[in-house]
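Now for today's protein:

——
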Amino acid sequence: MLAIDGTHGRANVRTCEGLSRRSVLTAGGLGILGLNSCPAQAIAAGRPRRARSLVILDLYGGPAHQDIFDLKPDAPSEIRGEFKPIRTSVPGLELGEHVPGLGSVAHLYTLVRSMTHTDTEHATGGYTVLTGVPHPRPGTILPPSPDDFPPIGSVVSALRPTQSLVPGYVALGGTMFSAGGDVPGQTGGLAGQKFDPFDVRGDPSKPDFKVRELSLAPDVTRLRLGRRATLLDQVEQAARLKERSRGAGGFGDLQGRAFDLLGSSLARTAFDLTQEADSVRNDYGRYRFGQSCLLARRLVERGVPVVAVYWDRGQVWDTHGNNFKDLKDRLLPPMDRTVTAMLKDLHQRGLLDETILLVTGEFGRTPRINSGAGRDHWPGVYTSLVAGGGFPRGFVYGASDEQAAYPSRDPVHPWDLAATIYHLLGIDPETAEITDRQNRPIRVCPGTVVQGLLA
């Protein structure tokens, strides 16, 4: 992984006539309540059929879907919990009372309330969501492996390489970890290290934030930089051959990429948040997740295909105890503020049409509240938020049962959502392949495109 510590320098649109009556009824189950019963009605004509960028906001730890996106006010108290539903900008759609911002912009996104899989562990569940491929050993705590399937960002950077000197895939917020170490599925894995993300581990909310590796020292001119790159290439040529023989590969590509980025003013300015107005920075929130999301917007604006923003690793959504207090006091306010600001900003800048935004955790939480006023791991059903890039707006797809325990219709697996994202990015998930380090072809995703999620 190309790790950058920014603080210290360390290591088209269909009409309803194009859908069958059954498709409309199943995909738009809340149409009777006023929600869009046809995704095509949710966005204006003329939008692109192919998204240019993808931003993934990973709410690591597993947010309680039934307290945020999928409330069950008629369920018994031990299931419905403490929070009340509130109205949103979409008639008939209600959210939890502690995400009023997201309620005000509900007309900009889709909620997929029928996400489901069976992996109850953070590490392997996280891998499944990041890669769109089920982990071969679900429910285990395993560190990353060179044989891991690469994340969506790495696949996109392999199949749609950038034409300018910006990274193909950037990760912000710090590496996610579990009891077994770093969560697998965050590196290039079997595709090789050259498809690792450009990993910025510094905190962009800090006054001294700088990606120092993109800044030349005062005594290093562009000419000297070029000479240094040439010398390094000569010295490490044998080492690179040795690494390839061991199957590690990719170090030469990483070094070359680093030098290319160092010489790119576009790359350097993309990471410069001081160019943003204070009002915009304040809207996103002056904390790590907020400024990382603003940085993600700057990056996609400048042509970076995929950006992943990981939630602050010290404040994860793993609310086994004090679920309602933690959600109300420390988790929902910053998430609501930042995601609302990002949706508004992307929309106002005209970027939402060509940028997919995915907000998700690795699973949800148990229907029944435990003895510690918490909720435990629950992959049976959960909600993901998707917006832009060809997804409908002001829409709900799928539903959970009366206890928010399992899908009651239209289940969507992580690999199906991944296949849909690939499709919207112009990559056919049924035929597209990447190659591993031994040059063997591997299909990018085992999922099926969810037609009801296409605007």
In short: The CA atoms of residues 222 and 263 lie 7 Å apart. The domain at 12-206+274-453 is CATH 3.40.720.10 (Alkaline Phosphatase, subunit A).
